[in-house]
Amino acid sequence: MAERRSGGFNLLLNFRNILGFCASIVISCISQLNTKRRMNLKLGNFSTIIIVNKNQEQTKAIRVKTKHLNRLRHYVAGIAAVILVLAGTIIYLTSIGNQQEREKQQLLSQIAQLKSKLPAADAAALTVDVPVKSSAQSYIESIQGKLQKINDYLRKRGLKGFSTKDIGGDKNADPKLSDDEKYSLYDEYLGRLLNSVAFTPMGYPRLSSITSAFGYRSDPFDSGNAELHPGIDFKGAKGDPVHVTADGRVDFTGWKGGYGNCIIVKHKNSFETLYGHLSHIDVHEGDQVKTGDVIGKVGSTGRSTGTHLHYEVRKNGHPVNPVKFLTLNN
Known about the structure:
Elements: H1 2-43, E1 46-52, E2 59-65, H2 66-117, H3 120-125, H4 135-156, H5 179-199, E3 210-212, E4 215-219, E5 222-229, E6 232-235, E7 241-243, E8 248-255, E9 261-266, E10 271-276, E11 278-281, E12 288-289, E13 294-298, E14 308-315, E15 318-320
Antiparallel strand pairs: 1-2, 3-6, 4-5, 6-14, 7-13, 8-9, 8-12, 9-10, 10-14, 11-13, 14-15
Helix pairs in contact: 4-5
């Protein structure tokens, strides 16, 4: 009886072991199936594109996510839509430009027809204005610039300038001349005038009263004799500035007999100016001087009876009356 019990117990143990073994095999199979399923799912997320060249000597494989391939048609559709919009915009703008050009040509044709039916004077008024500075306007600006420079020269000499506003031209000018020709003639004339004003001694070397005029007078050192006074004398105090009356080059500086300390400036147009009895000389021979520059100081050197400035104007080396050059009226 005991042996039967022992054999039955062993049989139960063996059956239990067999069941455990079978269970482990089932669990292992299930695990492998799940692993394989996950691998298949993972591989299903990608697609392989194989590129083969025409010689079929070499291939190239590219793995791309499947979702991108599925969306490719959306990408292509979006790019095509952008291209269509750009092409439509270009066509629209081109059509507008062509339309405007046709309208412009039509207007120009109408203007030409109207001009042919009107007199020349009226037709000129229909000319289309071009936003480019005309040669006539350039001449006007050049004329105004020259007049302003002439005014500057006059003011530096102590002379009153003139207005440069409302320049309208000469009403008596030849009507056959065009506006450009008229302004060209005015511009040429004013160029010569500017050159003359710049290099012709004009105005006062010192703004003060005249104490001795040009011409014959009694000798201040010998009242019994007469002498030619080749210039004019200006009242002044020692050290007062002396201004040159025209552009030029300093030809002489130093002591010159009865003139004492003296400066001679050569100008164009065969003019010279002399400044005598100076207490101080501020320039040197060869210097270029401009109208209004201070070249020396008033003094009483040389044959002088008191502090003053002796001023001469010479034309071709001969003294002329400086009073003629003090104002424009002369």
